[in-house]
Amino acid sequence: MRWKDNGQGFLRKNLRGKLAYESFVPSPLDTIIPLKLDDETIRNLTACSRMLGKLEGMLRFIPNAPMYLAMYVRKEALLSAQIEGTQCTFDDILDPDNVPLAKSEVADVVSYVRATKLAVEEMRNMPLCLRLLRKVHATLLEGTRGAERDPGMVRSSQNWIGPADCILREAAYIPPNVDDMNVALGGLDRFLNESHNVDPIVKAALAHYQFETIHPFLDGNGRLGRLLITLSLLNDNVMSGAVFYPSYQLKLRRSEYYERLMDVRQNGSYAKWVAFFCECLLASATVADDALTHIVMLHNDNANLVNDRLGRSASNGQRLLELLEGNPIVNIGFVCEHLGISRTTAARLVHDFERLGILQRRDAGKQRYRVYLYEAYLTILRQGSDPL
């Protein structure tokens, strides 16, 4: 690793002879603040705060807000997994036929959703700390790739980052050794909970960088580090729920994302990293705002359509519409089970929704086991979710 001392940390010499290597020891975050941010970054920071506030406010006045939040968590899970090469799509993670989770990539995303839910629940009773992150990590890796690599346990050996199957001396980056890692984690813990004078978005940016740099687990560091962005904003009361998907722009700008993180380690470019992070967060929040606006308009249009056109079935129609906003890919059996109605009633209701143009058949020629899509809703949520 190339390194120029700008106060970002130092290289620790480990072992001797042919086994010798250098690991990076990051500076505690409280020693590098305040940062000198340029005018554009400050404008983006202000705009991002305003946009997150707008999203938070919108949620108070829309129907089925928990449904939308759950869908946003799923999208963030997918985008975060796609940064690391997952090829599954948004439809894959919503398809009721994938409930058995035969596809490991779908399992990665579902575990991320479970981990997010656990984290939000645990943060009601404990601060954002290493103990919480270990619990979340265990859930994140449960039943996924990496499940055999000590879920919930910080590493007790050296790890490194580089091309597949590279050895230590070929690594592009070597995180802190175990002793330095434990010290750095204690510092990160304190920074998250005691740095009250740091802007929450700047804090989330720095916390994400520090976590990725410490790399405290044998697997799942990237996914947990991106989840930490959301958790840090929740911890600082910027949001009450996962109102947007921060990985959206990090995925689209993946190469630059990794380069910016490495630039901090090599050159101490904290301000450039924060500037990049603010750009990404603002763009992601803007996309989420646009999506939420269109989703609310779609809900209102279809709720009115159901009331106007379904007569005595309108009550069940509204229930189906609510179900679709949490599960936009369904079959008749799924509707029957979740609405507690007969299969005949469910089939009639689904066919009514198809006739009204709310639902579309996925396989038009299929006579049995048909799957139906809430296509207009999916079109809004699919934006930016194609695999890389």
Short description:
The protein is mostly helical. It has two domains: 9-283, Fic-like fold, CATH 1.10.3290.10; 310-382, Winged helix-like DNA-binding domain superfamily/Winged helix DNA-binding domain (Arc Repressor Mutant, subunit A, Orthogonal Bundle), CATH 1.10.10.10.
Describe this structure in words.
The mean pLDDT is 92. A hairpin with a 6-residue loop joins β1 and β2. Strands 3-5-4 form a three-stranded antiparallel β-sheet. Strands 1-2 form a two-stranded antiparallel sheet. It folds into two domains: 275 residues, Fic-like fold (Orthogonal Bundle); 73 residues, Winged helix-like DNA-binding domain superfamily/Winged helix DNA-binding domain (Arc Repressor Mutant, subunit A, Orthogonal Bundle). Helices cover 58% and strands 5% of the residues. α1 runs parallel beside α11, α7 packs across α11 and α10 packs antiparallel against α11. It is built from 15 helices and five strands. It is mainly alpha-helical. The longest helix is centred in the C-terminal third of the chain and has 40 residues.
